[in-house]
Amino acid sequence: SKVLYQFDLLGPLLFRSMISHLVNVVWNQRLKTNLTGRFMFGLKPTVPSLWKFNVSKRLDQSILDQARMGSALLNHRKYRFNMHPDGLCQHCMVPEDMVHFVLDCREKSSASAVIRGEMKLLSSEYIPFGMGELLDIPRYCKIVIKALRNRLISL
Q1: pLDDT above 90 covers what percent of the chain?
Q2: What is the mean pLDDT of residues 100-119?
Q3: Contact, 95 vs 85, CB < 8 A?
Q4: What 3-state DSSP class applies to 4?
Q5: What are the DSSP calls for 99-117, one per residue?
């Protein structure tokens, strides 16, 4: 006699979507209560099941993932690994982390300066998006990738 499991009755697609939903619920609950990864929680308070934008080149995908996780090798991160004297942005003299590089920096080669130009904002105006929303918009993802690639290559 064959044992009939519950997922045999549901069908593979429905079963897969139920598992995906359960994983997302558990993941989001742990993200809200866990003390580690607070930087990522500030960018994305919930974990999406799929990112909205992916790129075809492996290097660009890696750069985009680093931007989303806040782990690109900018001055503040280098300082944490004793690879930079102070971790400050050379142009703005504030800690150079991903949020600064993408949203706040006034240096003309930074992602924020290019995004401001694309949005037709003055250099004194703030970008009206947070990191999470900005990295879900494909044209801004491309700007961030290009600026980070140029920055990482120039090291």
Answers
A1: 12
A2: 86
A3: no
A4: coil
A5: HIIIII---TTSHHHHHHH
CA–CA separation, 4 and 137 (whole Å): 45
Which helix (DSSP H) or strand (DSSP E) does residue 80 occupy? helix 75-80
**SS3 (DSSP) at 147:** helix
Residue type, 125: E
Nearest Cα residue to 130 out of 112, 149, 152: 112
Eight-state DSSP code of residue 71: -
| 120 φψ region: left (φ > 0), alpha (ψ -120 to 50), beta (else) | left
Cβ 149 vs Cβ 59: under 8 Å: yes
Once rounded to an integer, what is the mean pLDDT over residues 25-47?
64
Q: Is 56 helix (H, G, I), strand (E, B) or coil?
A: coil
> Distance between CA 71 and CA 40 in Å, rounded?
10
Judge if pTM exceeds 0.70: no
